[in-house]
Specification:
globular; two-stranded antiparallel ribbon; about 110 residues; about 5% strand; about 50% helix; binds zinc ion; 2 strands; mainly alpha
């Protein structure tokens, strides 16, 4: 199963339910993350271009972080790998993780890494 298949499965799964805000790239489509609609997000993801669409480095919106984190975690990445994938430092990721947990926006990891 390649990444595209995993993404498709993810988008079609329970995690794919997103808040219906308008995407910046296609205002007629719901926002998925980083201001992008689902298909643009997936395309950027596949091309490794998500970093072109911050999610401001200094202030990653929590729902975007949570969406990214949950997806990567569900695919079995550990936190160090998730940090790399999101362009964050490991300590920055841990901070964002703890904030998201405290806010009730994210469920705790099943295994402590
Ligand atoms: Zn789009």
């Amino acid at each position: 199963m390649d990444l595209g298949d995993m993404l498709t499965e993810w988008w079609n799964g329970p995690h794919g339910i997103v808040v219906a805000k308008a995407a910046l790239c296609h205002p007629n489509r719901p926002l998925s993350a980083r201001g992008l609609c689902r298909s643009c997000y997936e395309m950027k993801w596949n091309r490794g271009q998500l970093d072109d669409h911050p999610a401001k480095r200094t202030y990653r919106r929590r729902d975007e972080f949570v969406a990214d984190y949950e997806m990567l975690r569900s695919e079995g990445y550990d936190r160090t790998q998730i940090a790399q994938r999101l362009g964050m430092t490991r300590s920055g990721l841990d901070q964002a993780y703890r904030r998201a947990i405290r806010a009730g926006a994210l469920t705790p990891d099943r295994t402590r890494r």
